[in-house]
Amino acid sequence: MPKNTKYTAKQPDPDGRITYTPEEDAVWRDLVAQQQPNVERFAAQPFLEGQKKLNLPADRVPQCTDVSRALLAATGWRVEPVPALIGFARFFEMLSERTFPAASFIRSREDFDYIEEPDIFHEIYGHTPLLTDPRFARFSQVIGETGCSCAPADYAWLIRLYWFTVEFGLIRENGAIKALGSGLASSPGELRHSIEEPSVVRKPFDVIDILRTPYRIDINQPIYFVLEDVEQLLDAATRDLMQDIKQAQALGLHAPTYPPYKKVS
Questions:
Q1: Given this model, what pLDDT does residue 139 score?
Q2: Closest C-alpha among 8, 29, 149 to residue 82
Q3: First and final CA of the chain: distance in angstroms?
Q4: Which fold has domain 22-251?
């Protein structure tokens, strides 16, 4: 994740509600209008079903309190506003407590098509639909519980499993590949890229392979992993992930398939 941000967190009032400006509500409205047709075409059924359960507003930024009410009824999860960036330790702790951290700001018009750090559009529009499904909610909680048992040196290894599933996972449905990850659902460009780009490598889901696969957060992914069904994710949640991390560390990272970061002079 990025180490700094130009955005400032918005603070909730005593009732947990945040005041957004008309301009910020308009950004949410236009993002939904742009992305929803793509989601309906490319996203997997669990995501689309989660959208129906939440019935998020299309014309204004949702309130975390309202989203939490729906999630609590569905899976016992809730959403909590946080600063733009939190560390891995706090992130894993919140997941283990069935609490999803939602950056409270929304991107500016300048960053409309791409923002490196997560904003509330990514967090709410992208993540919360899957959290209405007990299977994905449980997997996220297991990632959090495992992270709480990790040494800091292990964080980057574990987060790859989250990155290539919850954030950028694909799944096969009725013979077609569909987008499952929240990062894909909230990204206009990468959603289509993940499904249609011929240069993309789409690999079978494999926990050890995923843990060994490096990634960059600032480009469209060159590699995605494809679940054959949701049961594979549930099976992964029952594994000894700490042992998997040790095995992956012993084997070492795969060579990156993406270009290196450009140094800024």
A1: 97
A2: 8
A3: 21
A4: Phenylalanine Hydroxylase (1.10.800)
